[in-house]
């Protein structure tokens, strides 16, 4: 464990405090199945303390700091973050098993997200609204208040960057509750906010159980907004929990992204993207192309390429820089993935390769699973409909544009989609008709600070990143000023 980071205290009101409710819990390394560190665990009273600190900071120093100084603090934080990428990547990899070559690449980009949000902090102007000469009407934009950020275990620091960067730039204060399986990196993040000189209470970090600490955060009357990434079922619970306090919510939920390969595509490039996206993060990301739709003339070639690539994926200890793919992030996810392999076989899909837990020497205690390919998948099968979150590619054949679009849209989800075609007209026609928050053409998973990210249908509410990323953290106030100061007596006649 890097010396400068410790995990056995909560970060509340600028202080490292012992939990009142939960004590410490071991965090499990999914590559070994064994604990690797003790992490502070907060309960309801700890969340209450954190919200009180965030409220005090919001009403006190944070509200008074001019936006360009908020921006400067965020930039300072971003620069500090950039110097700690290796240490943060190691912590995250320990907690969720993501291959360190991926963690470093991902975390290495986060400073740019914070810089992007910093660049927006002092540009949150309103507009003037054309009226007649008797009034001057204008809008101003104001932070909503205390934000509860609830994050998942697959990309804890990325989710934190998207939520905290935007919330802080907007002038909100934050209580961050990371996922049970991966709390450590968020506490490391708190240390960096502390070092960068953020006023006490602007950022607070409280790991804890979702139904306890998370639910308290949602129900707390002083929390104005919840920014959540995770499961759809949890989002529905959050809506109900937050109903009495009318808590605003944005949701980044699951996906079952179609990755469509037309026969006229540059197949080598399409296969690079489709295989990469099948097994990145051990399959544990909502935007991965877990459904690969392949036009029938090239279907067999693509299936063969997937089989061949699967054999080249180096599955191994995630801290080894040579490793391509680490374990599943926790035990339940391993079980879920293996159960979907059985479901796929039961539904009559052809298991081309993989599908088993890896029990070879050195990996048997971790949650490792083989890169897996199913062919002969039809759109209605459960493995083509439901989010597996494992390294399982489902290859679905199709004939022509219309069928590709129909299959692409035939799930409850609508987060992301990719398509490969050499025909520009077709690319536009198909992209326009896919129900998704993001469509990638002749590329895949191109995600940046400046491009809005989020889903339609069951994939979520609202957008993160881009210029739009700050909207959920702001209220618009309309001010109307009379230039005459006269108001007719309504009862004069
Ligand atoms: P989850 O939705 O249960 O957990 C996400 C976060 O919500 C965690 O911080 C958790 O503690 C918190 N939470 C849980 N119950 C809560 C409650 N009642 N009130 C407030 N907060 C609560 O997700 P889970 O169970 O870890 O993952 C299950 C599935 O969700 C995955 O297999 C995957 O399909 C999907 N998922 C999607 C993600 C995405 O990036 N869109 C990320 C993680 C999971
Ligand atoms: Mg859950």
Structure description:
The structure is a single chain. This protein folds into two domains: about 10-255 and about 460-480, Aldehyde Dehydrogenase, Chain A, domain 1 (3-Layer(aba) Sandwich), CATH 3.40.605.10; about 260-440, Aldehyde Dehydrogenase, Chain A, domain 2 (3-Layer(aba) Sandwich). It has 14 helices and 20 strands. It has helices spanning about 45-65, 65-85, 85-95, 100-120, 155-170, 185-195, 210-220, 230-240, 265-280, 295-310, 330-345, 380-385, 400-410, 425-435; strands at about 10, 15, 25-30, 35-40, 130, 135-145, 145-150, 175, 205, 225-230, 250, 260, 290-295, 350-355, 370-375, 390-400, 415-420, 440, 460, 475-480. The strands form five sheets. It has a seven-stranded mixed β-sheet, sandwiched between helices. A six-stranded mixed β-sheet has the order 9-8-7-10-11-19, sandwiched between helices. Strand 10 (about 225-230), helix 8 and strand 11 (about 250) form a beta-alpha-beta unit. The structure holds 1,4-dihydronicotinamide adenine dinucleotide and magnesium ion (MG). Magnesium ion binds next to loops. This is Aldehyde dehydrogenase (NAD+). It is an enzyme of class 1 (oxidoreductase). Pfam families: Aldedh (PF00171).
